[in-house]
Amino acid sequence: MNQPSTPVNPVRRILTASLIGTTIEFFDFYIYATAAVLVFPKLFFPAGDPASATLESLATFALAFFARPLGAALFGHFGDRKGRKATLVAALMTMGPSTVAIGLLPGYTTIGIAAPILLALFRFGQGLGLGGEWGGAVLLATENAPAHKKAWYGMFPQLGAPIGFLLSSGTFFILSKTMNESDFISYGWRIPFIASALLVWVGLYVRLNISETPEFTKVVNNKERSKVPVADVFMKHTRAISLGTLSTVTTFLLFYLMTVFTLSWGTSALHYPKSDFLVVQMISMLFFGLGIPLSALLADRYGRTRMLVAASACIMVFGLFFAPLFTGGSLAMTGVFLSLGMFLMGLTYGPIGTALAGIFPASVRYTGASLAFTLAGILGASLTPYLATTLAKNYGLAYVGYYLAGAALLTLLALLGAGKMMKESPNT
C-alpha cells in the first residue's frame, strides 16, 4: 500500500497538536527547574548549609533525566506498536498529574524526610512523561510533512521549549513582584504547578482530535511493526542510537547552562536581583525562539547536517569566551551573553528533532528518536548544573566554558559521522 500523498490531518491541527503538548510539558519541566533553585532548597531539605541544600535540590532536578529514557522506552514501545496519537495522550497524562502533585506537597518541616522523597518520586514522574512526549510530538509533525519541509514542520514541537520557558519565567516573575518573600515561599510558588492542570486539559482536547500519521498507518498496513522496538533499536540500529545521542549532547548541556546554572550563579555569586535576572533570561528566550525557525529554514535549504555542524562549531567558540561574557560587569552585558547563548541554542535545537527522526525507520522511529534524545539528556543535562557549579566554585567560570566547548567538539564529530545516515534515510 502506498503512503498517502497528502497528510491525513489538516496542517494547522498537526502543528497545533505538536506545539501545544510540548509547550505544556516544557512549562511543567521548567517551573520545577526554577523552583529547584529559588524555593526547594529552603522548603524540602533540612536547614543547614544553603549551598549544600541547593546541590541536593539540583540532584532531584537531575533525577528526571534518568527517568526520561525509561519513559522513552515505555512510551516508544506503544508509539511504535499502537500508534502515535494514543501514546501522546498517555504521555501528557503522566507528566501533568506529577506536576500538580508537586504543587500540593507539604514541606520538610511538616512531613520530615518524606518531603524530599516524595519530591523525588513526582520529579521522576515528570521525567517519565516527558520521555514519551517529545518523540511523539516530533513524529506527529515530521511524519505528516512534505519532503521539502521536514525541518520546518519538525521545528514546531521545538518551539514549545522557549514558549514553555517564557510562560514559566513570566509566572515566577509576576509572583515575585506581587508577593513578599515569605508568601512566595509559603504558597506562591505552588500556583503554577497546580494551574498546569488547566493547560493539560487543553492539550488533551487538541490531541484527541487528531488522526494517526500516514507513515505509521503504512507500517501497520505493511505488517512491519517491531515486536520489541527497544531491542531492535539497540541490536539493529546501534550506530544510529550512538551517534544520534552524541549529536544531541551539546543541545542539552548548553540549554541548562544558560538557564539553571546561570540563574543560580547569577543570583548568588554575582549578586544580581532574582527578578531582574529572570527578566534578562526571558529576553534571551526570544533569541532562542528566533533561532529555531531560522535554523529550520536553513536546514531544509542546505541540509540538517550542515546546519547542526555549523551551530556546534559556533557553540564551541562561545564556550571559550563563556567566563568573560558572563562576568562582563553589568546586568546588560550578562543579558547579551544570555541572548547570544540562547540564539546558538535555537540554531542547534531547531533541526535536531527532524534529524534524529530521520536516522531511524518508521517501525522503530518513536523509540529510537526518543531514546537518543533522552539519553543525550543524561549525558548533557542531568548533572550539568551540579558539575558546572562545582567547576565554577573550585576552578573558576572559565572551566565551565571549557566544559561546554569540549562537549561541542564531541557533538561536531558525532554529527559528521551521522551525516550520511541522515541523508540516506528514507522518508526524511
TrEMBL record:
Residues 14-423 form the Major facilitator superfamily (MFS) profile domain. Its main location: membrane. Keywords: Cell membrane, Membrane, Transmembrane, Transmembrane helix, Transport. InterPro entries: MFS_dom, MFS_sugar_transport-like, MFS_trans_sf. PROSITE patterns: MFS. SUPFAM superfamilies: MFS general substrate transporter. Coiled coil: none annotated. One of its GO terms (cellular component) is plasma membrane. It is a multi-pass membrane protein. GO terms for molecular function: transmembrane transporter activity. It is found in: Cell membrane. The chain crosses the membrane at residues 14-38, 58-79, 111-130, 151-175, 243-265, 277-299, 306-326, 332-357, 369-388, 400-418. This is MFS transporter. It comes from Hufsiella ginkgonis.
